[in-house]
């Protein structure tokens, strides 16, 4: 695969991010050029490193070593123990990657896992996660998190909020925005002329006609009716417990769930190691492996790079419009 490289942010250096970057380069080499933005000192010992001055140098360098655009951190990285002194630079690498992709020197952004508590304590990071921070950097009011695996694409309509707050957050305007961004992303990023979207209900059995809750009747169904009239192909609200078996998945291109676990449990059950977090609604492509910092195994050499490899491949494909 040729073209501009993918910018990869280092994530929390005390987690498995450094190991994932090294293993991804070992697997891909020059076949899919990318470069890491981070401190070379944080990489596993023995990692071949080629420090580059600009993204344009990554393709040539990747044939012999992991290309790294150096971003100095104030402290070393101790596996499993995040250091507050490094928090601000973790945030800065994300902003730097966005600058590079928006300037056209990188084709996409792939972010390695951050630790939100460490960033909040060490850098005053006030965002719930990567997704919201990337939207702010891009000047975009609304984005959508899509989980992508070989067997399922699914979007949670609400993300990192307590379950008790989901019904209040699930307003008609919010759900309509999520569905429109999902529809446009399937069309513009994945090349689907008429995307088919299945929409889950919030309550058991999709409310069972109002006997188990009225959100389906009062919130979800009216939005679906309005968007169907505008030409979108939507199914639902459906009972979530019957949406994710093999035959059901053949009937749609993506599913929209009402809350975090309703979306993430099926995708992680179907393909735990290869799921990818994709942000829709940004003016550039951003992917991430669908897992966290894994402090418990950081520095042991046991990190599985499968999700990172899928995230890099998807980023490169979507940026070139050939997914």
From TrEMBL:
<keyword id="KW-0560">Oxidoreductase</keyword>
<keyword id="KW-0963">Cytoplasm</keyword>
<dbReference type="GO" id="GO:0008615">
    <property type="term" value="P:pyridoxine biosynthetic process"/>
</dbReference>
<dbReference type="GO" id="GO:0042823">
    <property type="term" value="P:pyridoxal phosphate biosynthetic process"/>
</dbReference>
<keyword id="KW-0520">NAD</keyword>
<keyword id="KW-0460">Magnesium</keyword>
<keyword id="KW-0862">Zinc</keyword>
<dbReference type="GO" id="GO:0008270">
    <property type="term" value="F:zinc ion binding"/>
</dbReference>
<comment type="function">
    <text>Catalyzes the NAD(P)-dependent oxidation of 4-(phosphooxy)-L-threonine (HTP) into 2-amino-3-oxo-4-(phosphooxy)butyric acid which spontaneously decarboxylates to form 3-amino-2-oxopropyl phosphate (AHAP).</text>
</comment>
<feature type="binding site">
    <location>
        <position position="160"/>
    </location>
    <ligand>
        <name>a divalent metal cation</name>
    </ligand>
</feature>
<dbReference type="GO" id="GO:0051287">
    <property type="term" value="F:NAD binding"/>
</dbReference>
<feature type="binding site">
    <location>
        <position position="286"/>
    </location>
    <ligand>
        <name>substrate</name>
    </ligand>
</feature>
<keyword id="KW-0479">Metal-binding</keyword>
<feature type="binding site">
    <location>
        <position position="260"/>
    </location>
    <ligand>
        <name>a divalent metal cation</name>
    </ligand>
</feature>
<dbReference type="GO" id="GO:0000287">
    <property type="term" value="F:magnesium ion binding"/>
</dbReference>
<keyword id="KW-0521">NADP</keyword>
<dbReference type="GO" id="GO:0050897">
    <property type="term" value="F:cobalt ion binding"/>
</dbReference>
<dbReference type="GO" id="GO:0005737">
    <property type="term" value="C:cytoplasm"/>
</dbReference>
<keyword id="KW-0170">Cobalt</keyword>
<feature type="binding site">
    <location>
        <position position="268"/>
    </location>
    <ligand>
        <name>substrate</name>
    </ligand>
</feature>
<dbReference type="Pfam" id="PF04166">
    <property type="entry name" value="PdxA"/>
</dbReference>
<feature type="binding site">
    <location>
        <position position="205"/>
    </location>
    <ligand>
        <name>a divalent metal cation</name>
    </ligand>
</feature>
<feature type="binding site">
    <location>
        <position position="277"/>
    </location>
    <ligand>
        <name>substrate</name>
    </ligand>
</feature>
<comment type="subunit">
    <text>Homodimer.</text>
</comment>
<feature type="binding site">
    <location>
        <position position="130"/>
    </location>
    <ligand>
        <name>substrate</name>
    </ligand>
</feature>
<comment type="similarity">
    <text>Belongs to the PdxA family.</text>
</comment>
<dbReference type="InterPro" id="IPR037510">
    <property type="entry name" value="PdxA"/>
</dbReference>
<keyword id="KW-0664">Pyridoxine biosynthesis</keyword>
<dbReference type="InterPro" id="IPR005255">
    <property type="entry name" value="PdxA_fam"/>
</dbReference>
<protein>
    <recommendedName>
        <fullName>4-hydroxythreonine-4-phosphate dehydrogenase</fullName>
        <ecNumber>1.1.1.262</ecNumber>
    </recommendedName>
</protein>
<feature type="binding site">
    <location>
        <position position="131"/>
    </location>
    <ligand>
        <name>substrate</name>
    </ligand>
</feature>
<comment type="pathway">
    <text>Cofactor biosynthesis; pyridoxine 5'-phosphate biosynthesis; pyridoxine 5'-phosphate from D-erythrose 4-phosphate: step 4/5.</text>
</comment>
<dbReference type="GO" id="GO:0050570">
    <property type="term" value="F:4-hydroxythreonine-4-phosphate dehydrogenase activity"/>
</dbReference>
